Amino acid sequence: MKPQEILDFYDEFRGKRGWNSLEAIRQFLPQLFAARSFDGFHFFTSHANLCISHFAHYANRDAAPQFSIVPHATELLWFEFTIHRGESPIFRAFTERVICPVERGLEQFDDIFSRFRVAQKPK
Predict the structure, then answer these.
(1) Angle at CA of residue 41, ends 38 and 43, nearest 5°
(2) Residue 9's CB: how many other CB atoms inside 10 A?
(3) Domain that holds residue 47
(4) How far does Cα 67 stand from its chain's mean position?
(5) What is the pTM of this model?
(6) How far is CA 102 from CA 7, 37, 38, in A?
(7) What angle in degrees, to the nearest 10, is found between the helix axes of 105-117 and 23-35?
(8) Alpha helix locations (H) across the chain?
(9) In angstroms, rounded to a whole number, what is the distance separating the alpha carbons of residues 69 and 49?
(10) Residue of 65, 62, 63 lying closest to 52 (CA atoms)
(11) Whether 121 contacts 83, CB under 8 Å
(12) Under DSSP, is residue 81 helix (H, G, I), strand (E, B) or coil?
């Protein structure tokens, strides 16, 4: 998904019953896309979770580091960076998470995304 497609996707839920929980992400994403470049990254979403990956295709993302942006209540954002380690049958995930108000979103995003940006990708 491209940034404008993502903005349009979340805007479709504006005013729909039960989806006011997406308001924080609707407020944050225009700021984020105006201020940061995401060349080389790929977005996918499952409604409330907007994920950023180093890979476009699901099969390649399986054990790859993952970054998520999640609205947490109507005025908070949840950023999550997960690294997967291990080999079958034991798999581990290490997660760093920060929850912050929308107005602190860019600074907190930059802090945690900087580690995701350089995270080792699976071979």
Answers:
(1) 100
(2) 16
(3) 3-117
(4) 5
(5) 0.88
(6) 16, 19, 20
(7) 60
(8) 3-11, 23-35, 58-61, 105-117
(9) 6
(10) 65
(11) no
(12) strand
From first to last of the 123 residues of the chain, give the pLDDT tens digit.
Answer: 899 999 999 999 888 887 888 999 999 999 999 999 999 999 998 888 999 999 988 878 878 899 999 998 889 999 999 998 877 888 889 999 999 999 999 999 999 999 999 997 766
**For residue 36, is it within any domain?**
yes
Nearest-Å Rg of the Cα atoms of the chain is 15
Which of helix, strand or coil describes residue 42?
strand
CB 51 within 8 A of CB 67: yes
Strand, helix or coil for residue 82 = strand
Q: How many domains does the chain have?
A: 1
Asked whether residue 53 is assigned to any structural domain, the reply reads yes
Round to whole Å and give the CA distance between 20 and 30: 17
Q: Measured at the alpha carbon of residue 103, what is the angle toward residues 101 and 105, in degrees to the nearest 5?
A: 70
Three-state secondary-structure class, residue 32: helix
Cα of 34 vs its chain's centroid, Å: 16
Residue 123 lies in a domain: no
